[in-house]
Design brief:
Elements lengths: L3 E4 L23 E5 L5 H5 L7 E5 L7 E2 L6 E5 L9 E4 L3 E2 L1 E2 L10 E5 L5 E4 L11 E5 L4 E4 L9 E3 L3 E4 L6 H4 L6 E3 L4 E4 L5 H5 L8 E4 L7 E2 L7 E4 L4 E2 L3 E2 L15 E2 L3
Parallel strand pairs: 1-2, 2-3, 3-5, 4-7, 6-10, 9-11, 10-12, 11-13, 12-14, 13-15, 14-16, 16-17, 17-19, 18-21, 20-22
Antiparallel strand pairs: 8-9
Length: about 260
């Protein structure tokens, strides 16, 4: 991943707010554009439609953002060296893209997240667009926390980076059923801010090869029989103390930012 170029203010964007600025910035080679102001649609409009990379929050934003014409641009967060564990929150309405080459679940629309070196919290409630199955894809390195009540049904793919569910309601309306699976591909990581449980594991695709990580201590029993290539890790110094049923490839441990401490039960 390349570092992001940061616009400190709207004045840094030539022709900001004028038609002349539209399509004036091209992202290539997974490059990024960060803003020190609340990311807005005018800034998105400045990107060429063939841009490949990410836009990153360098400040909280509640502005509505429409990614319809940006099928290879994801939403991430920039790192602020003046802060400890910088987290930027997005709370506006996201309009997903369609026809993205990153699509992996076959849904008609895609929310693309990831990119940057900060942590992005999406507090918005992500739903199916126009009542049509919509998926979420983490396509760039980065850390994304989903904290809204999300009802999109097209599934989720973590291709790289970390996606953390702040609560069970962050996926499929609390794992209510009727949604596509969660596919975790190497080097992707799915973490949970709640005690990891079997309900979460049951939503993960059996072809996953990445990591499911503790974001909190857990003593729930976990059965990996249908997840032979999925590892158990941690995104902090968390402890697992339940009973693990291994998959066909045995106990796969490790991955995430920190190792999980497994206490034999």
């Amino acid at each position: 991943m390349l570092d992001a170029v940061t616009l400190a203010s709207t004045a840094a964007l030539p022709g900001y707010g004028t038609p002349a600025a539209n399509g004036s910035i091209a992202l290539t080679n997974l490059g990024g554009l960060a803003t020190g102001y609340a990311l807005d649609q005018t800034t998105l409009n400045a990107l060429t439609t063939n841009s490949v990379g990410f836009v990153a929050l360098g400040a909280d934003s509640a502005n509505n953002l429409d990614f319809t014409n940006l099928p290879q641009v994801s939403l991430g967060a920039d790192y602020d060296t003046t802060l400890v564990n910088p987290t930027w929150t997005y709370s506006g309405t996201l309009t997903p893209t369609s026809g993205s080459p990153y699509v992996s679940q076959g849904a008609s629309y895609q929310y693309l997240v990831g990119g940057g070196t900060g942590t992005l919290t999406i507090a918005s409630n992500l739903a199916d667009y126009t009542a049509t199955p919509t998926e979420l894809d983490a396509v760039n390195t980065g850390y994304t926390i989903l904290s809204g009540t999300n009802t999109f049904t097209g599934g989720m793919t973590v291709q790289s980076g970390v996606v953390q569910l702040a609560a069970p309601s962050a996926y499929c309306n609390g794992f209510a059923g009727g949604c596509g699976p969660i596919l975790i591909q190497q080097p992707g990581i799915l973490a949970t801010s709640y005690a990891l449980d079997q309900t979460t594991l049951s939503a993960i695709s059996g072809t996953s090869t990445g990591v499911v990580a503790l974001g909190a201590d857990s003593s729930n029993n976990l059965n990996f029989s249908d997840l032979p290539n999925l590892s158990l890790g941690s995104v902090g110094g968390y402890t697992y103390s339940g009973t693990i049923t291994p998959g066909a490839n045995g106990y796969l441990l490790g991955g995430g930012n920190d190792p999980a401490s497994v206490v034999p039960s």
